[in-house]
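I hope you will forgive my troubling you with a question about protein structure. I set the record out below, with my sincere thanks for your time.
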Amino acid sequence: MLSQNLFVHHVYFWLENPGSVADRAALLEGLKKLSTVPTIQQFHIGIPAATDRDVIDTSYGCSWLAIFSNPEDQDIYQTHPIHLHFIETCKHLWKKVIVYDSLGGY
């Protein structure tokens, strides 16, 4: 079981060219490299599941979940050179990004 006091950072990406297999592959590769930031405890990279219920949004191209031990480690990640490089080299691949951050322990 994960600690209750974690900082969870979940990012959803909508691709600029949603039908491009190459663009999605490039973004997924970029996310793998991004996941090497040392303050990240665990991560998950995914694409929409083939589920179909009214409450499910499958309009995004891929998602990235990063788990940090605390908010301070997430702050370090935000300015880490690997994160900044990811933004610079991959930002042309997405048209929209939504981030959901949450704290545990409740």
Observations:
- The two ends are 15 Å apart (CA to CA).
- The chain has one domain: 7-18+31-50+58-103.
- The mean pLDDT is 95.
- Strands lie at 7-15, 40-46, 62-68, 94-103.
